[in-house]
Amino acid sequence: MLRIPCPWCGPRDEPEFQCGGQSHMVRPEPWHEVAEATWGDYLFTRQNPKGVHLERWGHVNGCRQWFNVARNTVTHEIVAVYGMTDPVPASVAGAKP
Q1: How far is CA 20 from the centre of its chain?
Q2: Which of 45, 64, 65, 84 is close enough to 41 for a disulfide, judged by CB 3.0 to 4.6 Å?
Q3: Average pLDDT of 68-96?
Q4: DSSP 3-state helix, strand, coil percentages of the chain (rounded to 5)?
Q5: Domain-by-domain residue ranges, the chain?
Q6: Thinking of the domain 3-82, which architecture would CATH place it in?
Q7: Mean pLDDT over residues 7-25, rounded?
């Protein structure tokens, strides 16, 4: 089980959280000029790296806040936790936003 360090509540067990998928997804704009292939990629294509992955997590059974987590998909080590509007920390080497 993961032990996720919530920025507001401190370390908590994974069942208190909900994973929101890949973070730093940018919606293509303007919507009425976006090609169907581009829209399809936005909706359905996600990174699935072996190594550090940037994810959104919500503390749904706690403070109900959302934040970003840099997690190694091989070891499940949480490398960094940072705010939703914060840039990717420099300490997260090799992760793509």
Answers
A1: 7
A2: 45
A3: 90
A4: 15, 35, 50
A5: 3-82
A6: 2-Layer Sandwich (3.30)
A7: 96
